[in-house]
Amino acid sequence: MGERAVESRAAAGHAGVGEQVLDGYRLLRAVQVNGCKALYEAVAPDSTQLAIRAVCLDAPRARHRPLDNEYASLRRLAGFCAVPAVVGVGRTDTERYMATTWAPGSHLDRNLRKTLDLAPAPPLPAIAETFAALHARGVVHADVNRHNILLTSDQEVRIIDFENSRRLEDDTPLALRHSGITICFAAPEARAALHDQDKAPAVPTPAWDQYALAALFYYQLTGHAHRMHPDKPTSDRSTAFPLHGPAAARWPGLPAVLATALAHDPADRHPSTAAFAHALHRAMGG
Q: Which of 27, 108, 120, 130 could join 146 in a cystine, given CB atoms 3.0 to 4.6 angstroms apart?
């Protein structure tokens, strides 16, 4: 029943049929629907713009866990302006939901390399600093990708989608096969756990986020992946491709900074994401 309610509401929202309401919140559109899970853009009675995540009550436990993760992490990060704030939680007869502030901004550019000679330096250090601030507050994001990082018109960084996140004291493994994390940016230890069920359970760490940030930055600056077949497990300890092209020419120290963050062994990466951000600042003249 809950899944049908979510899907029928989403279908009506996509079709623009009538006003959809969830527990007093007016739903403007379905941003994403996956069975009995949905993400909506909504407005509160006072016209505040919101994001609402909903899950049907009769969904399997695995469907509820992402919402629990997001709620726990955003509560931990309360007051940190770079992430959404929890406005309210509740349930109806068929589903439970969480309402948060709507994060302003646009997704990262898919490809920066065409404008490197003309544009100001991309805000890579600021992005890394924002993730370092997450880690300092005890939260690992665990799913770094261009859709989960927003830039405001003032180039301020916002981070969204904490469904796969973990608090540092939480050693619960991430169910990678059902997590939906962006594998092409994932750290080798995460990919190995995904492809080899005999491996130790994959518990997200700040080193995961550091590696994924470097992989994302590499892709943005070059237009291609940092390794051959980045979505496959790495059975060897080969190094990532060296950064090349306009970005390497403009910032000669940047290839070494990214290479360290992309080390196969987490122990060989920068000591922390804050150290990674500091190295990016030095390399890019920030």
A: 108
| Closest to 20 in 3D by CA, of 68, 52, 67, 56 | 52
Residue pair 273/254 in contact by the 8 Å Cβ criterion:
no
pLDDT > 70? residue 233 = no
Given CA atoms 189, 194, 195, 196 in this order, what sign does their dihedral have? positive
- Give me 154's structure tokens: 């003032």
Report which of 102, 105, 84 is spatially closest to residue 153, judged by C-alpha positions. Answer: 105
Taking alpha carbons only, the member of 177, 228, 186 closest to residue 207 is: 186
Do 35 and 104 form a contact (C-beta atoms < 8 A)?
A: no
- What superfamily would CATH give domain 106-284? Transferase(Phosphotransferase) domain 1 (1.10.510.10)
Confidence check: pLDDT of 188 > 70: yes
Distance, in Å, from the CA atom of 83 to the CA atom of 74, rounded to the nearest integer, reads 7
Query: Parallel, antiparallel, or unpaired for β 95-101 and 139-140?
Result: unpaired
pTM, rounded to two decimals: 0.88
Q: What are the tokens at 122?
A: 């991309």
Could you confirm whether domain 2-101 is CATH 1.20.120.1780?
A: no
Per-residue pLDDT reduced to its tens digit, 42-80: 999 999 999 999 999 999 888 898 999 999 999 999 999
Strands 86-91 and 37-43: unpaired
Where do the domains of the chain lie?
A: 2-101, 106-284
**Count of residues making up the chain:** 286
Q: Is 11 helix (H, G, I), strand (E, B) or coil?
A: helix
